[in-house]
Specification:
The chain is mostly helical and 165 residues long. The chain has one domain (3-164). It has helices at residues 3-23, 31-45, 53-80, 85-101, 106-122, 127-164. Helix 1 packs antiparallel against helix 2 and helix 4 (85-101) packs antiparallel against helix 5. The two termini are 19 Å apart.
C-alpha cells in the first residue's frame, strides 16, 4: 500500500474513532464499544501495521472499563441514595424504553421515573425519599457519562498517538 492510500485510511479511521467521542456526549450510547470495533476493523484491514496487537489491547481495555462504568454508575448512585434493587431494575428497564421513545434524554427521564415510581409503590417511601433515590440514580448515571467522555477522549488520543507517532 502506498503512502497516500495508507494515510487516507489512517485519517478515515481516525475520523470514525472521533465520531465515537461525539457519541460519548449522548446518554446511553455505546460510544467506546463503537470506537473499539472501529479500531479492531482498522487493525485487521491494515494487518496490525500502524496499530499493534498490544496497542489494540489497551484500547479494548479502555472500552471494557467504559462498559463497566455504564453498567455500574447508575446502580451505584441509586444504591448510595437508598434505592432498592427492584427499583434500580425497574429504573434501568424504563431507561431503556425511554431512550427509544424520546432519545437521547428519554433514558434519563425513564430512569428517574422508574426508580421514583418503584420506590413509591413497592417500598411505600415518601415522595421525598423516592425523589432522593431517583436523583441518586440520575446522579450516578451522569457521573458515569462524564467518566465515559473522559475515557473516549483518552481512547481517541491514544489511537492518534499509536497510528501517527
Amino acid at each position: 500500500m502506498g503512502f497516500v492510500p495508507a494515510m487516507a485510511l489512517d485519517i478515515g479511521f481516525a475520523s470514525l474513532v472521533f465520531m465515537g467521542v461525539i457519541l460519548a456526549f449522548v446518554p446511553f450510547m455505546p460510544a467506546l464499544s463503537f470506537m473499539a470495533v472501529v479500531s479492531v476493523v482498522f487493525s485487521l484491514v491494515t494487518q496490525f501495521e500502524p496499530l499493534s496487537g498490544g496497542e489494540l489491547s489497551i484500547l479494548v481495555a479502555i472500552s471494557i472499563v467504559s462498559i463497566a462504568t455504564d453498567f455500574l454508575s447508575g446502580l451505584f448512585g441509586a444504591k448510595m441514595f437508598g434505592a432498592h434493587g427492584k427499583s434500580i431494575f425497574i429504573g434501568m428497564t424504563l431507561s431503556f424504553i425511554g431512550f427509544f421513545i424520546f432519545p437521547p434524554l428519554g433514558g434519563i427521564i425513564g430512569l428517574f421515573l422508574g426508580v421514583f415510581i418503584s420506590e413509591m409503590v413497592f417500598r411505600s417511601k415518601s415522595v421525598e425519599g423516592a425523589v432522593k433515590s431517583a436523583k441518586g440514580a440520575v446522579i450516578g448515571t451522569v457521573v458515569g457519562m462524564i467518566i465515559n467522555i473522559i475515557l473516549a477522549i483518552l481512547f481517541f488520543s491514544l489511537f492518534i498517538l499509536f497510528i501517527f507517532i
